[in-house]
Specification:
Blueprint lengths: L11 H12 L1 H14 L8 H12 L6 H6 L3 H11 L10 H33 L3 H20 L1
């Protein structure tokens, strides 16, 4: 009998965010558009689930469990069930607050990744002897750092 593919480990921030989005319609309506804007889903372990939720919402349909599950492949369905039916989540949560906190964590991770990318570009330009480009990337890095400090 063939073994089922192992489910990926899902970071806590994704688990909490999924619980919040499935548990509270108002939170889902407020957070899903911001999640798309964030562009952080690329690295999500539960990316197919989030993408299914976004597709439903964009089509004007509620992202209820059955509708989302219906859009998923078998492995993603198992992943969804493992997250939503886990015993580790509390029943009484402030979903809006939890979802907002999850977005802050994801935004911070995205900014750190952006800063790392810019630092690498500065080094590459310096190694190539292209000081004008290195200065341009340094300026971008400083702008990003100032923006982060202002928040």
């Amino acid at each position: 009998r063939p073994r089922a593919a192992a489910l990926p480990a899902i970071p806590a921030v994704e688990k909490i965010l999924l619980h919040c989005l499935f548990s509270d319609e108002q939170t889902r309506a407020r957070i899903l558009p911001r999640l798309r804007e964030l562009g952080a889903m690329e690295g999500f372990a539960a990316r197919p689930i989030f993408e299914a939720m976004l597709a439903l919402e964009e089509a004007g349909q509620p992202a209820a469990f059955a509708a989302v599950e219906g859009r998923l492949e078998e492995n993603a369905k198992s992943l969804l069930a493992s997250v939503l039916f886990a015993d580790e989540m509390e029943e009484e949560m402030d979903f809006a607050r939890q979802a907002e906190e999850c977005l802050r964590v994801l935004e911070a991770g995205g900014r750190r990744a952006g800063e790392s990318e810019l630092r690498a570009r500065v080094k590459d330009a310096e190694r190539a002897g292209n000081l004008a480009e290195a200065l341009r990337w340094t300026g971008e890095l400083e702008r990003l750092t100032r923006t982060r400090a202002a928040k």
